[in-house]
């Protein structure tokens, strides 16, 4: 059985609908809580796949969260070794930081359901499943594209919404992993951010009901296609 190392920052931002395709392809999950659980260099290196999930902190907030420096350096070691890695939201930002790129506040918060604009490379690869479908955005930060990365998707205020480095690294600024049945955990967990941004929870709920199931199916299809490319032999 293949091992998937999962780095989680808050409990409700979990693998969501990504868990199914991973389990179907024979992955077991080793879930670690960032800032609490120790992950050795060998564990980072040896895991067949690492998935770094989202969270409400900034990749650059190393003064407030000192463990980020060590964590980012370990992630950089894995990337330098060419080991398969997926980053979602904060996870994508940490991949960029680990590769020496700047992570910084964007021009505005992007929260809610809207499609991404796929690049030619995005339409030709695993993200094709998202074409024309709204996805959940939930971020205030952005990053510069890592050297050697291919941009896969953009929005008007966030040019770098998704990128790939070869077939082994996938960074996703938005949240194709979210299980729409669990949106209330996000609305509770991010209550301060939502209030500060003046977000209408009723509208978010209604949009989740309208778009969530199609987005979840597209998210599963996205990861399935990426796994088929990166791990062509099942089991």
From TrEMBL:
Gene3D superfamilies: 3.40.50.880. GO terms for cellular component: cytosol. Pfam families: GATase (PF00117). InterPro entries: ChyE-like, Class_I_gatase-like, GATASE. Residues 23-182 form the Glutamine amidotransferase domain. This is GMP synthase. PANTHER family: GLUTAMINE AMIDOTRANSFERASE YLR126C-RELATED.
């Amino acid at each position: 059985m293949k091992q998937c190392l999962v780095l989680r920052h808050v409990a409700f931002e979990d693998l969501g609908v990504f868990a199914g395709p991973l389990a179907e392809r024979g992955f077991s999950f080793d879930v670690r809580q960032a800032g609490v659980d120790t992950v050795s260099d060998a564990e980072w290196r040896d895991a067949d796949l690492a998935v770094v999930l989202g969270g409400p902190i900034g990749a650059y907030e190393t003064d407030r969260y000192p463990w980020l420096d060590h964590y980012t350096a370990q992630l950089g070691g894995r990337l330098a070794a060419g080991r398969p890695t997926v980053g979602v939201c904060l996870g994508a930002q940490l991949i960029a930081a680990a590769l020496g790129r700047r992570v910084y506040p964007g021009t505005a918060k992007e929260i809610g359901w809207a499609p991404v604009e796929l690049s030619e490379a995005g339409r030709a690869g695993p993200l094709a499943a998202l074409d024309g479908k709204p996805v959940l955005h939930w971020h205030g930060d952005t990053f510069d594209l890592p050297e050697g990365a291919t941009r896969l998707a953009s929005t008007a205020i966030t040019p770098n919404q998704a990128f790939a480095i070869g077939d082994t690294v996938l960074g996703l600024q938005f949240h194709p992993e979210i299980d729409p049945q669990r949106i209330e955990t996000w609305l509770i967990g991010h209550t301060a951010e939502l209030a500060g941004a003046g977000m209408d929870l009723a509208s978010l709920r209604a949009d989740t009901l309208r778009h969530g199931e199609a987005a979840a199916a597209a998210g599963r299809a996205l990861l399935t296609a990426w796994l088929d490319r990166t791990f062509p032999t099942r089991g």
